[in-house]
Each structure stands twice: as structure tokens, then as C-alpha cells.
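User: Working on a comparison across species. This one is Beta-ketoacyl synthase from Amycolatopsis regifaucium. Can you predict its structure so I can line it up against the others?
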Amino acid sequence: MTDSAGADRPVVTGIGVVAPTGIGTAEHWRATLDGRSGIGYIDRFDPASYPVRHAGKLRGFAAEDHLPGRLLVETDLWTQTGLVASHEALADAALDPATVPEFEMAVLTSSSSGGVEFGQREMASLWQNGPRISAYQSIAWFYAATTGQLAIRHGMRGACGVICAEQAGGLDTLGHARKFTAEDTKVVVAGGTDAPLCPYSLVAQLSNGRLSTEPDPRRAYLPFDEAASGYLPGEGGAILIVEGKHAHRERGAAHSYGEVAGYAAGMDPRPGSPRPPALTRVIRAALADAGLGPGEIDVVFADAAGSAREDLLEARAITEVFGARAVPVTAPKTLVGRLYGGGAALDVATALLALRDGVIPHTDGTTRLAPGCDIDLVRSAPREAALTSALVLARGYGGFTSALVLRKTEPDGTTQGAHR
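Assistant: Here's the predicted structure for Beta-ketoacyl synthase from Amycolatopsis regifaucium:
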């Protein structure tokens, strides 16, 4: 379940964000701390006949402002957001891929549903116009399209892949990045994005029974709240640059956000099994992998499913490991919705920014904790705190469960506050 990379644990040196809270890391972080929601009425198509009509939407994003025209016709919005986020992440890391041997760079992304908007458009064309569809249909819809396009665009020919674990996938990409950097890979482009806001995709999501049909968007996604009714979907995500610590030092990089200190993953038992959910043991395994005890975690970024049952299971897992109200917990994803393949990656980006600035973003909307949720949920406003470590949790539909431990690094790359 665990993966130990020894003393040379990798560091995150660059962050790129394309999210409902902002295009770019700085804009996303300001909106998150200000509590400016990216949830809005779905306007890419008429959602009036659907029970879910709101979602986390990208605002001010125009792919043509960032990408060459040929890529626009070859790719889905999902891949376009990943390409734009990767450019920001590489620039943030001050990393020119041309300066790194091509077989020592890897790409690993999380994908939940692939290029559904592109796919729907071409299927509609086939139905309405006969046998004429884009030559890029099979490529753009394919769940590995973003990984492939990133690898091609940046000349990265090392170990590349895609992880399909729904919301948990973003953490899994970083866990596997540790394995890559422990071997011969110097740089890993990791993370994920998603773009699930088209009629075909929305119908598919409704089948899981977990989306909120609350008509008031301010009340639709309230994790850990007594009025929790499900979640809202969203589009976007984050791409992160992960480097081996030695490789990072060798190239004389200026900064790193934090160390990928611990990781674990597991699967929930099948429905009806007497075995408990995986989250508690996965949290403990991630802490053990990081060499930390519960008292050394300063904040937990929750998965925050938004349903009464799933929220209670997560709250119980957190209290079982840390104690009741013993560690601050937050879920800033209420501002964007659940981004599936991009959600956990965005949580990691937000957690790293929180470590950098010493502030815990709040959980917008949740006001009254549900019975049994005995956690110290940060609400109403951000909370300043001395932060050196963060735990990020993610659960994907079907039982995927992952946990990632991040440690703040000093400007010289050393880990801050080890074993307080």
C-alpha cells in the first residue's frame, strides 16, 4: 500500500491552475482566500430539463489565447486546460524541458471521463449529418489524450501514463511520481484536469445518485453540514511539476513548494461487506510512509463528498486517527465543485499554497456540522496557522481511496519542522 522513496523524496517545484476560481495559480489562491465561488448556472447548453443545473465553471478561459489553432481542432477542453496549466507550471518551476534529457522526463495525469464534450459533438454530427466525423475523434476522446499531448508538446519521452481512479486519481499521479523520481526520472509532470459539463457527461454523472439537485447553488454543496445533499460537478484542475530533490538541486532551481513526503492508496470493500472502508488504514499508511505521527499533521484537506453517509465516514476516519477536533480540517473545493480527475490535484496545489503562506482556506457554505462529524472544520474565514505539513484525502466513485502527505520546504530545499 505504501511507497517509500527514502531520504531523497521529491519536491513540487511548479504549479499551474485552470479552475472555476481562476485561470492561473495567483488568481485561484486569491479567490479561495476571499471565498469567491466559481459555481454558476450551466450555460454551455440549456440544462433546464436536467435535475442538476449548476456547476463549477471556468470563467474567462479561451483556449485560443494560449494554444495554436491546430491543437484546438485536435483536442477536447479537458486536454486544453491541461496544456495551459502545464505551461504555467513549467514557467513557475523555471524549467525548460529542452535542458533535460528527453527520456528523463515523465508525464502522468489523472483522467475520469476523457474528452466527453468533443465526443458528444462528433456523435451528434454522425447522427445528424451521416458518416462524417473528425479524424481526431478517437484521439481526443481517449482518456490518455492529455498525457499524450503533454508528452508530445514538451518533448517528454520517459515513463508516461494515465490513472483512472476518479477523484482519487490526482493523488495517485503524485504517489507514482515518487516512484519515477526514485529511479532515473528527473522531472514528472503530474496532476489532472476535467471538463464534464456537456449533456452526455451530465447524464452519466447523474447515474451515481450523488449529485445535489438543490436548486440554490449556495446550498447545493455543503460537505459535513446537516443539510448536505450531494455535490456539484466542476471543470478544470491543476498540473504540478515534481522533481527529485537531487535533480532539483543540480539544476540550481530557485524554489520548491513542498515535499511529497508520504502516500498510500487502497480500495473500499464491496457493498455489503463487513470490512470497514479503506480511509482510516490509508491515512495511517500515508503517515507511516512519511515517518510522521498524527500530532505532526497541521491540516487535513478533506475529500468532502457532500453526502451525509460519506461525510460521516470521512469524519469518523479523521477522528479515529487524530482524535475529535484535534486537527484543522478544510474543504475549499466547495468553491469549485468536485472536479473528478482534476479535483485532488487542485487540492494538492491549494494545500501547497497554504503551507507557503501559513493560512488555512475555509470551507465556504457549511455552517452547521452534521451530528457525528466531530471535526475542527475551518469555516467562515481563513485561519492563520504555523503550517509545516498537510494531509490531502481523496475518494473516487467505486471505492478508490488515497492519501498524500506534504511537507513544507525551506528556500534551500530542506524540509521544515521535521519531527517536531
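For your comparison, note: The CA atoms of residues 304 and 375 lie 12 Å apart.

User: Helpful, thanks.
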